Amino acid sequence: MSSSVKSKKAEWLTTLPSLVWLLLFFAVPALIVLAFTFHAHTPNGGVGEWSLSTWRDLVDPDYPAIVWKTIRISFEVTFWCILLSLPCAYAIARLPKRWRALVAGAIMMPFWTSFVVRVFAWKTLLHPDGWLQACYLTWLRVSEWVFDWLPSFLQKFFVFIGFASQDRVDPMLSTVLDSEAAVILVSVYTFLPFAIMPMYTAAEKFDFSLLEAARDLGAKNFYAFRKIFIPGIRQGIISAVLMVFIPTIGSYVIPQMLGGTECILIGNKIFMRAMQNRNIPHASALATLMAISVLLPLGCAMWWKKRQELRDRKRLDVRTAQLMTGGAE
Amino acid sequence: MNDDFLVFDHVTKRFGAMTAVDDVSLTIKKGEFFSLLGPSGCGKTTLLRMLGGFEKPDSGRIYLEGKDITDLPPNQRRVHTVFQNYALFPTMTIWDNIAFSLKLAKRSKEEIEEKVDEILEMIQMSEHAWKYPNQLSGGQKQRVAIARALVDRPQVLLLDEPLAALDLKLRQHMLIELDTIHDQVGITFMYVTHDQGEAMSLSDRIAVINRGKIEQLDGPAKIYEAPASRFVASFIGDTNFFSGEISSVDGDYCTIQTDGFPVIKAYNDKNLAVEQRVDLSVRPEKIRVTLEPPPPEKGAGINVFPAKVQDIVYQGVYTKYWIKAGDLRIAALKPHSRFLLDQETITWNDDVFVWWHPDDGYMVEVK
């Protein structure tokens, strides 16, 4: 018994530093930000009296659209990152061992260059005279064509969520620089390593003989990949999603430099309110709003999943009981 | 019975400079329990993987029920494998694991439920249907792996060292269970192992493989009693070898002039001629060790040699004696039974007599 007390104590002691760290540099600042939202701002950029005026000022008709756009773009970036990193993670994990570390190192290589410098480089790549501009125009044509081909209820849905627009773009006026596409492209480029790494770590632990077993039992390659490999690295995919989604939600450098006026995200708004308008309480309120609009659906989804699991287990128990009595007969 | 059920026709497989399977031809009967037995790296697993479709032979063809399956991918062969590490899908329940092949074969929902429930009952795992593989013990995983491979009634079931990861007691238990399952389903089993005990107790026929070639293909008793080569004799069980040359032939028997040992009488069932070089294999359990020479009525016409005890190894079921006779060290086994109490106990450095009947030696020609 004393040893278990001791190990409890040791566990507590080892977690203590990280706990203090989280408390000091995460929980306390978050609470300060929350507290700021219940203050008015002062004309010279300070934080004023306790007041609800900041929340009242937040009723800006632009904000819901920007919040939604930020979430939608983050979803799109996450989707592309996961789609691209799945085959990457699979391929790296299947390499001979000494090659794996080399390739994984190569994937992390871009981080040796400053992030801002890399975004500037993209500005050149996306220049209206460049080949990416031509690609962009083709992409627009194709997506317009696909859009026209879709049934009208889907068209309406895509327009409603802001994924597509009814207006035809003028090829002379639409540039890939300062567009939503540029923001998504460069965000995918930036966050792809963060998606590949956790997935690769999970894939490295994956037992590839399971795919052989699936093939042996009659599965085609892709079916085995879908039904065995993807569920097998589920934990890696979940952390990859978080690693991409969360920074994209808060990103402001990429939209600032490559999104022009077409793609202003909540991060840019927060930046503007804090640095240009010197309205710290307003910026804090926007940040809080963003956090709530992400955490609320996430919390609901987790609660729903837990309930679902409990229900499934109950159902399985009933089925097992049936099997058992069936076996006894 | 279909004798040409499964045919390997001059199959060769190389990995770089190494020839894993060297021009192997063999024929397996329908419903047979067939074992590939050999040391690790002998090519037995490669043979199995070629049958499963995971490796392609460099030359030669494989036929299953008259159909050439050499180039078919694994998912188009009705040949299922029980893997050494079981390879159960960890994200699926036992039930879903077993239903996997049936779902892929697009069976109806009712049929899937019926078949899975039936096989779960056969392996006595019904109450574990909704568990996940990591909640099962080794033996249970093993049974699920077999059920998963069998539920779709494959043409051949491949078993790749399926018992290697289990402890001794469980292994013995699973041996009996495997035998029962084979009797119940009547499917052809192809069993790969390096454990001669497993192969002996389960198989209808065994192919002993060494360096990519089949050394001998026979029933278990034949392989033990009449090994085709020195390798087979030494790989299957313990044996003592006496190398020498046939010096005279007398009817069914002959004498062998051995190197470093006196002349030995042996049964000459292969009608070998004088001056043929042979290896004589005599199993330890066929050799008797006594302090006195055998009585004349028993001793006539048998091999009797004086010797000295060097080591005694107590092994529970029997005691193993290492005996120096001539220049050779001979192993002999002696069971512990009351009927042997009339004899005095033998200890280290005792001068003893070793004796065996000429019929108990088996000659292998040296080329």
Radius of gyration of chain A: 25 Å
Quickly name the level 1 CATH class of the largest domain in chain B.
Answer: Alpha Beta
Percent helix among the residues of chain B?
A: 10-25%
Q: Helical segment tally of chain B?
A: 9
Name the CATH superfamily assignment of one domain in chain A: MetI-like
Largest two-chain interface: A-B, 25 and 29 residues
Q: Which terms would index this structure?
A:
heterodimer; A: 329 residues; mainly alpha; MetI-like fold; two-stranded antiparallel sheet; 14 helices; 2 strands; 2% strand; B: 367 residues; alpha+beta; Rossmann fold; OB fold (Dihydrolipoamide Acetyltransferase, E2P); 6-stranded mixed beta sheet; 5-stranded antiparallel beta sheet; 9 helices; elongated
Task: Walk me through the structure.
The complex is a heterodimer of chains A (329) and B (367). Chain A is an all-alpha fold. Chain A is built from 14 helices and two strands, in the order H-E-E-H-H-H-H-H-H-H-H-H-H-H-H-H. In chain A, strand 1 and strand 2 form a beta hairpin. In chain A, helix 9 packs across helix 10. Chain A starts with a helix and ends with a helix. In chain B, helix 2 crosses helix 3 and helix 2 runs parallel beside helix 4. Chain B is an alpha+beta fold. Chains A and B meet through helix 9, helix 10 and helix 14 of A and strand 6, helix 2 and helix 3 of B.
Topology:
The complex is a heterodimer of chains A (329) and B (367).
Chain A: H1 2-36, E1 39-41, E2 47-50, H2 53-57, H3 62-93, H4 97-108, H5 115-125, H6 131-149, H7 152-160, H8 180-205, H9 209-216, H10 221-232, H11 234-250, H12 253-258, H13 266-276, H14 280-328
Antiparallel strand pairs in A: 1-2
Helix pairs in contact in A: 3-8, 3-11, 8-11, 9-10, 13-14
Chain B: E1 6-15, E2 18-28, E3 33-37, H1 44-52, E4 59-64, E5 67-68, E6 79-82, H2 94-104, H3 109-122, H4 138-150, E7 156-160, H5 168-185, E8 188-193, H6 196-202, E9 205-210, E10 213-218, H7 220-225, H8 230-235, E11 240-250, E12 253-258, E13 264-267, E14 277-282, E15 288-290, H9 296-299, E16 303-314, E17 318-325, E18 328-335, E19 351-356, E20 361-365
